[in-house]
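Work Package 3 (structural annotation) set out to generate three-dimensional models for the target panel prioritized at the project kickoff. During this period the team completed the workflow that converts sequence records into discrete structure tokens, so that structures can be stored uniformly alongside our sequence database. As a representative example, we reproduce one entry of 370 residues exactly as it appears in the project archive.
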Amino acid sequence: MNAHLRRAAVAVAASAMAVSLAACGSAKESGDKTDEPAAKKGDDITIGLLLPENQTARYEKFDKPLIEEKISELTNGKAKLVYANAKQDATLQTQQVDTMITNKVDALIVDAVDSKAIAGAVKKAKEADIPVVAFDRLAEGPIDAYTSFDNEEVGHVQGKALVEALGDKAKDGQIVMMNGAITDPNAALFKKGAKAELDGKVTVGKEYDTKEWKPENANANMEAAISALGKDKIVGVYSANDGMAGGIITALKAAGFDKLPPVTGQDAELAGVQRIVAGEQFMSVYKPYAPEAAAAAEMAVALAKGESLDSIAKQKVSSPTTKDVPSVLVPVVSLTKDNINDTVVKDGVYTVAEICTPKFKAACDQLGLK
């Protein structure tokens, strides 16, 4: 694991969340109860990690190495992590769960491509006595634990930032809403939170649910919105994440906007942070990956060992299929040009050198990023 990831894991986990490991009790925290408690296991366990796609930088660059390092730390280096990426294919992810079950992993961490489609695979894991931790997205089926960010709050942060960026211009035109994929339950929560802030303050001229979160799909949607509304009528864009914001901004530039309207984002991807530095993107949502990864690792290890989650998961979240799932929800931060130093740089996610490449050096100097 490289140095800035290690700094991120240490600094963010220490500051954002302290998760105790004093764990004991039964293996089953939600769903069906067994008559007999699971046999306790030692550190020699196998954890399966299934991530949804590799288009978004966070999964391969942050989540996987952070989870892997935390599991190693919790098990004195004795645990094994088995990893698979579904590349945005829900059918492939179901097959990957089947493989993990066949290989008899002791616990699964799953970030679902499609929260509904994964339910059958989760049920099969449960029937094989393999506990499942839903990571980042609330998978349906009998999951045992869940960790994510407060996703409705993400939408509130985005919507509030856009309203503040627009100021008096909010009444002068219309905004375009570029929501995430309908297969992702988080997208609905982002949308709900954002609309709570936007309703009555702005007029939504066009709204899209963006297939597979792909930047090229957001780009095509934005081109259609510009054609339908006219560029003079668009005063702002709600973009649910940074990848789509990139596609949106490309479309805005191609349409010849004299000045780019404020565009939101999420994930604090490096390209998004650089666009914020350059004044092309107004904001992103910084989600500290280290505490989310730590929570997933700690819950998976505890469940694999037949231990309780009481000291780890202090919250409860219900899915359409499972009530009161033990959960850890991590707070988020609105990232703008004013707090880059105090967030992603301070937490070691990126160095100033990574952000301030020659293309962005002048803008970085203006912001005092050195």
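The chain has a mean pLDDT of 90.
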